[in-house]
Amino acid sequence: MSKKATVITYGCQMNVNESAKIKKIFENMGYDITENIEESDLIFLNTCTVREGAATQIYGKLGEIKPIKAKRGTIVGVTGCFAQEQGVKLAKKFPLIDIVMGNQNIGGIPNAVEKIVSGETKHVIATDNEDELPARIDADFESTKMASLPIMYGCNNFCTYCIVPYVRGRERSVPMEQLLDEIKVYVQKGYKEIMLLGQNVNSYGKEFKNGDNFAKLLDEICKLEGDFLVRFTSPHPRDFTDDVIEVIAKNPKIARAIHMPLQSGNTKVLKDMNRGYTKEDYIALAEKVKKIVPDAFLTTDIIVGFPGETEEEFLDTLDVVRKVRFGTAYMFMYSQREGTKAATMEGQIEDSVKKDRLHRLMDLQNSISKEISESYEGNEERVLVEGPSRKNKNVLSGRTSSGKLVLFEGDESLVGEFVNIKVTDCKTWTLFGEIIK
Ligand code: SAH
Ligand code: SF4
Ligand code: F3S
Known about the structure:
By secondary structure, the protein is of the alpha/beta class. The chain has helices spanning 13-28, 52-72, 81-86, 88-93, 109-117, 164-168, 176-189, 214-223, 242-250, 267-273, 279-292, 311-324, 351-374; strands spanning 4-9, 32-33, 42-47, 75-80, 99-102, 124-126, 146-150, 152-153, 172-173, 193-197, 229-233, 257-259, 297-304, 328-333, 380-388, 395-400, 405-409, 418-426, 430-435. It has three domains: 3-126, Methylthiotransferase, N-terminal domain (Rossmann fold, 3-Layer(aba) Sandwich); 146-374, pyruvate-formate lyase- activating enzyme (Alpha-Beta Horseshoe); 380-435, CATH 2.40.50.140. It binds S-adenosyl-L-homocysteine, iron/sulfur cluster and FE3-S4 cluster. S-adenosyl-L-homocysteine (SAH) binds at residues 50-51, 161-162, 164, 199-200, 234, 236, 261, 263, 301, 303, 332, 334-335, 337. FE3-S4 cluster is lined by residues 11-12, 14-15, 48-50, 80-81, 164, 167-168. It catalyses: N(6)-dimethylallyladenosine(37) in tRNA + (sulfur carrier)-SH + AH2 + 2 S-adenosyl-L-methionine = 2-methylsulfanyl-N(6)-dimethylallyladenosine(37) in tRNA + (sulfur carrier)-H + 5'-deoxyadenosine + L-methionine + A + S-adenosyl-L-homocysteine + 2 H(+). This is tRNA-2-methylthio-N(6)-dimethylallyladenosine synthase.
């Protein structure tokens, strides 16, 4: 019987992409991929450390794995950002871990697994910070129609709350020719949606001497032949230049969901966060995007309870949310990350206050999301069919260019195709519709 391997993913799209690569690595090593950890001979956790909750989830999963390892001798590896951050500390805390392989070192996984299998060593710990372009590793994506690819790695921004620059290293971009070649192959293979990834995608190419930048990359991708949609995440508002907005406006191949992480709506808090823009800058940018790309669906990330945030400052965040009217927002309570500047700032906010602010923000945002969703009624939308819906196999699900989930009746053979849908009913998070012949 062949050996089985499981990869469990936490965190952002970059981790999802890297997990796809790790699965491919395991397949190349002769493992079959399974989601059932009970039958697994090799389990890797691809971890996140952006907020405290991420770490807690990982501890819980290790607890679940312990009896499985005791029974079958499963090899346990931890990779990703939490592994990168914790290094050897993690293996000391959890002796069941055989391999700690930081996010900068996933190429070293096969070697590490072989060392453990052959009994050459008891533990392998590798969390070097390369600050170089990692080797491009092949990936198999869960969906046969949606591919993602990193265009840049790392982050130089050092927002004061954020641990990512410490675990992902400095910014480095993949040469444009290489990206265009890779995307061409994906499109030829039939992928209909290409997601460009980076911690700060619109600083793509800053280190290049040949003038290649994010706007040019988007433009060149759109010139590639074929019917496909390009998404990207995450841009930084400070680097959201006019040429990028214009490229989006003129290219229907670029998705209308535009993510612009706000973090806070108050200028003083933004300064303390080291975000590089003011409340007014942000509102002006959002207005410009909406004017030049009228069908833009803005999404955002917001943190409440940053150290020192007063009630009045928090109200500024609500004010921006009201003015900009985001389609959706990912909303978080500030989480103290050791080693970041904000972790030692004065004025850390009580959990009860953070919770209260989060609830008020969510109430406001949910009502806006609902209104925006309802405005889709009667629209005709081009939708990429992703698969049968989870709850009802006779119903298909897909997403609009703006990222809204749509459910409609149709034949499974349409999966991976674009269809035109007339929207007949709208709930906050889901649209319902029918295929227009
Ligand atoms: N590079 C991306 C994503 C960073 S992490 C970007 O800049 O947009 C994703 C989101 O997690 C951030 O946008 C931020 O809203 C949130 N986040 C990061 N650090 C956090 C912290 N310490 N506490 C709470 N939320 C945090
Ligand atoms: Fe973190 Fe800021 Fe970099 Fe995003 S831009 S990864 S929030 S430091
Ligand atoms: Fe988490 Fe690392 Fe992504 S900390 S959010 S997995 S970059």
